[in-house]
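Hi there. Long-time user, first ticket. I'm pasting a complex I've been working with (about 381 residues overall). I'd like to know whether the download I got is complete or cut off, because the file seemed smaller than I expected. Thanks.
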Amino acid sequence: MNTRSSVEKRYADAAIQPEAALCCPVDYDPQYLKVIPEEVIEKDYGCGDPSKWVKPGETVLDLGSGTGKICFIASQVVGPGGRVIGVDMTDDMLEVANRNAPIVAEKIGYGNVEFRKGRIQDLALDLNLLGAALEQHPVAGANDFLKLDEIAESLRVKQPLVASNSIDVVVSNCVLNLVESEQKPKLFQEIFRVLKSGGRAVISDIVSDEEVPEAMRADAHLWSGCISGALTEENFLKAFEAAGFYGVELVKFESEPWQTVAGIEFRSVTVQAYKGKQGACFERNQAVVYQGPFKSVLDDDGHRYDRGVRVAVCDKTFQLLQSGPYAGHFASIEPLEIVPSETARPFNCKKGARRHPKETKGQDYDATTEARTCIEGSDCC
Ligand SMILES: C[S@@+](CC[C@H](N)C(=O)[O-])C[C@H]1O[C@@H](n2cnc3c(N)ncnc32)[C@H](O)[C@@H]1O
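Hi, the file is complete. Here it is re-exported in full:
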């Protein structure tokens, strides 16, 4: 059996009969578990809890949603103003999730979760729609296959399973490792595609501390058991970078391995990564000061910020550094005379260039001011 069929069979079986070997201890918030039926909880094959980073009102996409536990937790976190979409390729998993969705909805008083059938490395292709097309155009030869391929391409464009730029936060719990090695780059690109600009991915998965040797990768049972498809902890983060994410951060790193196989440690981590650094750069005479504690830091575009130094940045970087992963690390300095965005020129990015205070205040600035008045209770005196 190859790795792909092994994953398909193992999770179809695990949807019917719980498999203890696929469970990894996770401390889910008990308040959200109260309304989730036991059948869903006992078929938990996660290794982390990405729902801890979800916020009220968000649209959430859960990759490899299994029997739906993370979706049902996220459903309560986002509240009636948000929505949750779970994607899985295994019919038996989807059956359990779909059967339990109305039960959870009744208990919490609203329904905002839906499950869709697809492969997470091809989030544009709706496998239910493809199945319906196959019934009308059965494949009996190469020409039929080519026709079906054409239909699949048209479905991806006209009726995508998950539309581009439509999701606030993509979560996943112990699934990315299961995708075949050659499809992993496509998987990260798909996560990036479906996120809105400003959105983020929060992914819990198993990583290895050393490269997994070829012989172990060929072991289909180890692969479907969330072991041998794991990326190294370093390559896992690099995969987000390669897809265009910024602010990539290990928000959880289990010190104890989940399993050790042939001396290689496999542990659970949770990574948060942001979409939104792409776009044109405009000069609005802004500067930032990195506040520390490190002597110097580098962002995902290669800009270097030395502690305490006024660095010239474009408007896009200026905005990014005030929010998301960077919030609280940079002081922002606007020029005395604001440059309207309509008249802003393209920014000449000389990475790490300083912004002289005279540029901020204006070359002719020579004001002398009184000390700021002390107000009782303020901390300015
Ligand atoms: C280890 S289980 C995790 C299930 C769930 N996230 C949880 O926390 O219990 C992996 C799930 O991902 C699904 N899966 C594996 N590979 C997939 C792929 N390429 N596309 C879609 N679903 C996939 C399996 O059907 C299974 O439900």
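A couple of notes from our side: The pocket of S-adenosylmethionine is lined by residues 7, 11, 22, 44-46, 64-66, 69-70, 88-90, 93, 119-121, 173-175, 178-179, 226 (CB under 6 Å). The longest strand covers residues 195-208.
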